[in-house]
Specification:
The protein has one domain: Mog1/PsbP, alpha/beta/alpha sandwich (Protein Transport Mog1p, Chain A). Helix content is about 20%, strand content about 35%. It has three helices and eleven strands.
Length: about 210
């Protein structure tokens, strides 16, 4: 049978369509992993202005501002975990309560310690430097039920005679993720050193794990 040009085109198109194989199924790309703050690649940031040496996990991923305000302000870029710290010398000998009161007057946005939101609290005479007495409070600031996350904090005040130190770590996460971040925040504060006790150079010294050197 002789086909007209139009029927020839339809015949060829139909033949190709019938002989073509079913395309392979496309495997969906895996969902991107959420950013994390891991207990690796620690480095110390040395602040002569605050007289502190602060250890930071994944040290190169922090954006550190030690000039714009009276506080050192460090933000872990991938997760937005944040460390703020300030030291000062008062006019008279200080207690932990007076140190906290002054710190809150300098930074009213420090997390409020509300009954029922505190996970852990303790005092230590071994943090920062011999002679420093410190109070540590770990708690949950607020929850975002729509996202299933909460904001937590590690709040530290330390005193040695007239010298005061205030430090806060804040993080947001869900469940165990937030717990891990608060554990790292506690480790950051615990391993912070007052520079007058620490010889060395800065600003960022690589260390394997945080230690009191």
């Amino acid at each position: 049978m002789k086909l007209t040009p139009l029927r020839s085109f339809v015949f060829v198109f139909a033949s190709i369509a019938c002989s073509s194989q079913t395309p392979p199924a496309v495997t969906p790309a895996p969902s991107p992993q959420p950013p994390s703050l891991s207990d690796t690649d620690w480095g110390r940031f040395r602040s002569e202005r605050q007289s502190l040496s602060i250890p930071l996990p994944q040290g190169k991923l922090w954006r550190i501002d030690d000039h714009s305000s009276q506080w050192l302000d460090a933000v872990h870029t991938p997760t937005q975990c944040r460390v703020r710290a300030r030291t000062w010398v008062a006019a008279k000998a200080m207690s932990l309560d007076r140190c906290e009161q002054e710190a809150r007057s300098y930074a009213p946005d420090l997390p409020a310690v509300v009954q029922g939101s505190v996970i852990d609290t303790f005092e230590s005479s071994e943090w920062f430097a011999p002679g420093f007495v410190s109070r540590v409070v770990v708690g949950i600031k607020e929850a975002d039920r729509s996202r299933g996350t909460a904001e937590g904090y590690v709040l530290v005040f330390g005193v040695e005679a007239k010298r005061c130190l205030a430090m806060v770590f804040t993080a947001t996460g869900a469940g165990p993720e937030l717990g891990d971040r608060l554990n790292l925040g506690t480790k950051i504060a615990e391993s912070t050193i007052v520079l007058s006790r620490l010889p060395g150079k800065g600003p960022l010294e690589r260390v394997q794990v945080p230690n009191r050197e």
